[in-house]
Write a structure and sequence with these properties.
The protein is of the alpha/beta class. It contains four helices and 19 strands.
Length: 188
């Protein structure tokens, strides 16, 4: 028999009120309180907290509190990832963030989704779709990455953008919903 948590992790329809899922959510709330109170703590202290809770954490990772997530154990971040203040990751299933990615303040990365069928919604069912963000990606402030999106390596997502579909490697996308625009180059 498959548990509700196993269904959640597999991206299948599940019941979020399940006791095991709720226990994980409560443990995450306690961890978030500790992490978010560590704003003035050393980078090493915050790294230790991340290692204790995330699925995997590369070297040189900096996630500025306050930070918010559903569970934490579904998040994997590569080396040198930087995430600014007030970011949210709804990680009912896997979120992978590649090395050297920079994420602006108030960015939201969402895997949680809801059935389109009204009967399933009324029954309280939910599901998730994984999000994969490649290496060396720059995500501007207040961007929103929706469930199931893959962002290719070296992509740029403009501030305030709503990413509803995959972003090709090296592309620059802006808007709501995002559209690919020519990359801007700065003279040095």
């Amino acid at each position: 028999m498959t548990s509700e948590k196993q269904k959640m992790l597999a991206g299948e329809l599940y019941r979020p009120g399940d006791a095991e899922i709720q226990a994980d959510a409560e443990a995450n709330k306690r961890w978030l309180a500790r992490y978010n109170s560590a704003l003035d703590a050393s980078r090493e202290t915050r790294r230790a907290l991340l290692l204790e809770h995330f699925g995997s954490v590369g070297t040189g990772v900096a996630i500025r509190p306050p930070f918010f997530c559903d569970f934490g154990f579904n998040i994997a971040v590569g080396d040198n990832v930087f995430m600014n203040f007030n970011c949210v990751i709804l990680d009912v299933t896997r979120v992978t963030i590649g090395a050297d990615t920079q994420i602006g303040p108030a960015v939201q990365i969402l895997t949680a989704d809801h059935p389109r069928d009204p009967g399933q919604r009324r029954a309280g069912l939910e599901f998730g779709r994984p999000v994969v963000i490649g290496a060396n990606v720059w995500i501007g402030a207040a961007a929103l990455i929706l469930p199931g999106v893959t962002v290719g390596d070296d992509a740029v997502i403009g501030a305030g953008s709503v990413v509803t579909r995959d972003v090709p490697a090296g592309a620059t996308v802006v808007g709501n919903p995002t559209r690919v625009v020519p990359a801007r180059t700065l003279a040095v």
